[in-house]
Amino acid sequence: MKKHKWYALHSLAGIKLSILICFILITGTLATISHEIDWLANPSQRVLPAVDSSKINWSLVYKSANQRQTDYPIRDIIAPIDDWFAVEVIRSDENEQRYRQFYHPVTGEYQGDGRWYNWQRFFRMTHRHLMMPTIIGTTIVCVAGLLMFFSLISGFFLIPKWWASFFKKPRTNNRKTFWNDCHRLFGLWSSWLLLVVCITGVWYLVELWGGNAHFPEQIDSISISEEQVLVIPSQQTFERIVNDVSKHHDMEIKRIIFPSKRTNVVTIQGQNNTILVRERANNVIFNPITGGYLSSRFAEDQSVHIRISEAADPLHFGTIYGIYTKLLYFIFGVALSSLAISGTYLYGLRYCKTLRGMRTPVKNLWLVSWGGMKYWRWLCITLIIISLLLTVLMFTNYILI
């Protein structure tokens, strides 16, 4: 295929939906560090000086949480994601709406509350499905990801000997040359991240439309009397459960899920030496009344299909090695986001008609790019406005989910 045809494909993928693609890339970039943004925004989440988050005193946290409030049941207790984070206790209020409480991981001291809908939820949900019903929003985002993938492939065909261009300094001959070289440089250095997020995005689409992996069935309920609608483990039973996890597997506890209307057992999720899996891949399930062991599963014993499914999130959001890979993803995510902006600007430079020797005003360049988007620009803007309106309604509890 000739170069001008590759350019036409590259422009089609990059210009027509550039507004939506830029929105998805920016929210995805911020989603990688969204927990840290919440840490900065809410002092209750901070543990300073930092403590070893692997040495959580689960017993003290559970005792403190029960003493703090007994009206609303505990849904989950979540381990800190880093040493300077507090333990999260998730509860439900009278409207069954979740909210957060934060406790010191060692002393169990209560530190404060937090909303369920925080920055992490905002960036994750807008990036994943634009706040829309999952099947609709995720499909839209994944289709946009496919267009980004085509833009990535076509970009390589537009750069002669692209493998030798990683360290080429942008030329300053003129404005068009300079921005073209910058666009090329950002694209090359961030291409690995775009490839990862596009492949995992395609996998999300496959899962959404029927290709999702299923874990083997486990014991996730026990027989209880009608009076015992919601069984909350006693302090003694809870301590026994936490201590007995090590008898079944050398797993670091990351999440404790308590009985609910959906399942009336205690589920302990965590991580072991298995790489690229979410906490849910490893679990041990206990009876909330007696503390007796019921069942367990571990990622190392699962099928290839399940392992691929569990690897998608760590790869997509860069949580593989904690804050270090998240910062790496954030830096290159910024470069990716700049591609959508610089590409739109270059489109205007390429197609803006000017008189010889005259410099085109920047405003005219953006107007040309705006015109090149045609009716697709209105589709992009409409989707973003819908996403933001749904955010306002959801985050003000106007829509209860």
Structure description:
The protein has 401 residues and is of the alpha+beta class. It folds into three domains: 3-35 and 122-213 and 318-395, no CATH class; 43-117, no CATH class; 241-316, no CATH class. The chain has helices at 3-15, 18-31, 34-41, 58-68, 119-129, 134-158, 175-211, 235-248, 304-317, 323-351, 362-372, 376-395; strands at residues 74-78, 87-92, 98-103, 110-115, 252-257, 266-271, 283-286, 293-297. Strands 4-3-2-1-5-6-7-8 form an eight-stranded antiparallel beta sheet. α2 (18-31) packs antiparallel against α5 and α10 (323-351) packs across α11. The chain is elongated, with a radius of gyration of 25 Å. The N and C termini lie far apart (50 Å). The relative contact order is 0.14. The model has no long low-confidence stretch (mean pLDDT 87).
Features of this protein?
single chain; 401 residues; alpha+beta; 3 domains; 8-stranded antiparallel beta sheet; 8 strands; elongated
